[in-house]
Amino acid sequence: MSLLKVTSPHVAGQSRVSSVMRDVLLATIPGVVVLTAYFGPGTLVNIVFGGLIAVACEYAVTAWRGRDPRVAISDLSILVTSTLLCIALPPYAPWWLIVIGVLTAVLLGKQVFGGLGYNPFNPAMVGYVVLLISFPVQMSAWAPPRGLTDVPGLGETLRHLFAPGTIDAVTAATPLDLLRQNTGLLFDDLMSSRAELGGWGGVGWVQANIAFLVGGIWLLYRKTFTWHAPLAMLGALSLCALIGYDGGSSESGGSALFHLFSGATMFAAFFIITDPVSSAVSNRGRLIFGALIGALVYLIRVLGNYPDAVAFAVLILNFCAPFIDHYTQPKVYGTRNKDV
Fold it and tell me: CA–CA separation, 69 vs 77, rounded Å?
């Protein structure tokens, strides 16, 4: 008798996979709504455009490989990948940037390894890192939030997308950029000197992080994933920030609240590192996995060249996940360690 070889995510059938993916998509809605409210409809337009590109690419590749493309699309995993990538992109990215990112995520991040369940790296982060390294100027073109300038409407957003050279883009440094560029101001003075730094981590960014936190808590309630990796990441990031804060001097790495509610912290904690395929498997392994990501995020933010380091930290730990799993396997019931 031949046994069916299956790989993660270990869920009960196609309907269960699509159900989990649907929950993840629904959980992103609060964050997308907040990003749209503060930065305009760019993120929403990116998601729709990126989703169409991703579905078309997934359909073509699976058909070329001799598999049923309708099955590959119906599990919604490709929409999750494209949605997470497009949320991470600047709201008014040009169309070609989205196309390159989505194709990279689908082809290099997923299909080259065999499709869903075989990819060792988070596909959305693969696409994001390729774009960040290749096109740093376009990837840093975040628009200022509502209240500091006029937010583009839908028509102007579409022109940014399909005819980016015809209009001048208005961009501003993100809170993490401003912290990294600070050379002389005390942390509290820096926070009070710039209007975009209002609140704990910047206008629009605090609200978006809270919205993604709400979506993540709902996913925990739905038992889409366990609490181990998100809590470990947020705890390690907070601990590193507390150690490096030094009372708020100009050399300070920023407060714990600033790091928790600025950049993509909550988005990463609940939507990126919880990927069941590319993360650690055991609960103890997830704690180590999440804690190391949190520490790396802080170190790269403060000491590295990239203000928001989530993608790099995630890919590094994706590479380490099998090693972590090897040393954190639970003991088989009824055996001793040397018997396993």
Answer: 13
Q: Which two tokens stand for residue 97?
A: 């940037």
DSSP code, position 146:
B
- Nearest-CA neighbor of 9 among 290, 321, 325, 279? 279
Q: 136 with 165: CB under 8 angstroms? A: no
Residue 315's H or E segment, with its range, is helix 310-327
> C-alpha angle 14/16/20, rounded to 5°?
120
What is the Cα–Cα distance from 88 to 84, expressed in whole angstroms?
6
What SS3 state is found at 116?
Answer: coil
pLDDT 10s digits, 145-159: 876 667 778 888 888
Question: What six digits make up the tokens of 154?
Answer: 């839908």
CA 66 to chain centre: 31
pTM for the predicted model, two decimal places: 0.87
Structural domain of 306: 174-327
DSSP labels, 12-61: SHHHHHHHHHHHHHHHTHHHHHHHHHHH-THHHHHHHHHHHHHHHHHHHH
Please, are residues 138 and 85 in contact by the beta-carbon 8 Å criterion? no
Same domain membership, residue 273 and residue 160: no
Detail the DSSP E strand segments found in 218-308: none
Query: Do 254 and 241 contact (CB within 8 A), yes or no?
Result: yes
Q: Residue with structure tokens 């598999």? A: 67
DSSP, collapsed to helix, strand or coil, labels residue 217 as: helix
Dihedral angle computed from the Cα positions of residues 77, 78, 79 and 80, in that order, rounded to the nearest 10 degrees = 50
Do 150 and 233 fall into the same domain? no
Query: Could you tell me how far CA 294 lies from the centroid of its own chain?
Result: 13
For the stretch 84-112, pLDDT in tens is 999 999 988 899 999 999 999 999 999 88
Co-location of 231 and 244 in the same domain: yes
